[in-house]
Amino acid sequence: MQNNVKAVIMAGGVGRRLRPITEGMPKPMVPIVAEPCINHIINLLKKYGINDIAVTTMYKGEVISENIKASFPSLNIRVYREEKPLGTAGSVSFARDFLDGDFIVISGDSLCDAELDKAVDFHRQKGGIATVLLSEADDPTEYGIVLTDDEDKVVRFIEKPDWSRACATAVNTGIYIFSKRIFDYIPENTFFDFSGDVFPSLLKAGEKIYATRMDFYWKDIGNPTAYLEANIDMVRGVVRRNNDKKNYIAEHKRAKIIPPCFIDSDCDIGDAQIGPNTIIGKGCVIADGARITDSVIMRNVFVDAGSYLRKTVICDNSRIGKEVSVGEESVIGRNCEIGDSCIVSSGAVIYNDIVFESNSRISGRNMVLRGSNEISSGKLVFDERDSLFDALKWGYSYGKAVEGNIAFAFPEKAYSAFAQTFSSAVRDSGDNVYLLCETDFSGLKYIVRNFGFQGGVYMRREAEGVVLNFIDEDGLFLSSSKVKEMQKIYDSEDFRTGNGGRLKVFNGFAIGYQHHLERLFDGISDFPATVIAPSSVTNLIHFSHPAATEKFCVTDDRLRVFRRENGEDAEFSKLEVSLVCLYVFGKTKGKVFIPENFPSVAEDIAKNNNFTVTRIGWDKPDRYLLYSFTDPISCLSAVLKYLSDNKTTFGEILRKIPQFYREEKRVSVDGGQKARIISSMSLSPGCTLLENGIRISFPEKKSVVSVISSADKRNFRIYAESVSRETAEELCDIYVNKIKMESKKVKNDTSK
Hints:
CATH architecture of the largest domain: Alpha-Beta Complex
CATH superfamily of the largest domain: Spore Coat Polysaccharide Biosynthesis Protein SpsA, Chain A
Number of domains: 5
Distance between the termini: 35 Å
Strand content: 25-35%
Number of helices: 19
Strand order of the largest sheet: 5-4-1-6-11-8-12
Oligomer: single chain
Helix content: 25-40%
Number of strands: 49
């Protein structure tokens, strides 16, 4: 490497999702083929002539420091210790005085074999302030997506999207090359992240950030599955080893060893079958008749006769008895003892220092059971009969993700055991909980938004179970980034209680909400309609006419409108209600803020009626502007007032909307394909990238197709909009088939 390039290794990771592997051990120290992960990174840097290295640490930094001193005495390595979390950029800032030119930043807890000389050459040729190394990932939701133009210049970062926003497969590896000018954008001793803080600042300032896709191996060792895969990839030669560590396989004459395998020193292996894809650490004893495949066995582990281990991880100093069966994707912690004839089911996680008697059947997590619930659209559903423990976990996770004063509302008069469990967990996370008894969902959103709360939870019972709706300080459903943060805390299972928050029962906020409603519905005169809404609204307006032709109904988070036809109620579609609300808001306010994926007819309605619309993504900083348009009470008030003032009906307004047809279909693909499909289809002419998909315009047909990615791994929704029903149906079918063809193409490409 020329010009004395230096490097910074970020090694502050705790590795909560890797537990129990990382229990008592910093994440960069987890062994990959019997050597700490950080050592592989240092050897990579050494290979390219980089001998001046800064290492930033936090959790158990002394362990990392001692390892480096013992392993690399000839290199110029400086170790810095964070006393408090400072983020990725904040930690690198420690080394600013050590660095004097272009430098590399790389993580100490991921595995890679990048050609760093070529990456530095690319950086210098482009002349930007920063270069990001990219890798391809079928599942980009655990990483940051990077979007570039035709000249490799970065135009957008999307940090750890959910599947609805996974629009590309090029992900940020966390390997960067920077000019020293980067420190102009990083404050000292301040929490600052590259992805969340530095890169947005650079883009805003007009600085040039470039990204390059190079053919190299990279894996973030974020969970036990990834950890096992990284070990197997190295022993198979998928990733190049940059050390000369000796493999002692030849010493074990009695064993049947199926390559590839790695066996460290001082092992005693009898007439056993080892491999393929197996790593045996130092000092292990494997008795006759044992079989171990696709596994990592760490140091000083004893496996007795006849036991069968497959696709599993066994940590240091554990003992596996005779005739034990350990299922796939299991993890057994340090100093554990599994008695004779035990069956460890697939996916079991056993934490450190656990002893199981002979003939035990071990399933799930012996310490903490992992729930199957996932949050979707700010909503979480429980079966109250068996979910109290999950209520604890989700309550704590929400509290840690939001942090502050939390409002908790529920329509039931009784404060149930479920509600008590959940609110107690929120308090255990350190938050204060205010119970707002008998407050409806709209009331909760208003109170949270206007009285200084950092979040709110609305609980109700439905046929499917207990439903919890989570909102943020703006009274809106949690953004996808906040949901992912909450999910990450839940998955980490790091539920540590400290100073608990307070519990208060207080209904004084309801007075403020009532005054708000009085202002909203002031001046609305009686007219032939029926209104079904929470009592806080119907106490102000009394519309219930036997001869009414239209009925307005507010449910928990939706305005529904019905018309009377032939003695029965026929419901207007959700889309029709939204379009009328758009018309009313536009006519009365002159400007309307709408969600990014709102139908394209919005622009036509605005143009025809002399108002403007602004589209806002649900994850954007200005998402708070969407509140009025998405709140059913606000919409009800606006519509009723307009109808009253203009002596008209909902149906008459709808007839003023331009002719518009929308066809909707759903299509499923194999898990993990969605990002590649969206990435490929985004290259189509007339295509615009949305927050959660793409929109393709057909001006000649006066039509638009939106391909929207759902929050799961498999499903897309196709919306075709046109002035012609036939055209909408035709375009919808075309894009369903396009997605199916792209799915087949991705499957063929990945199978090669």
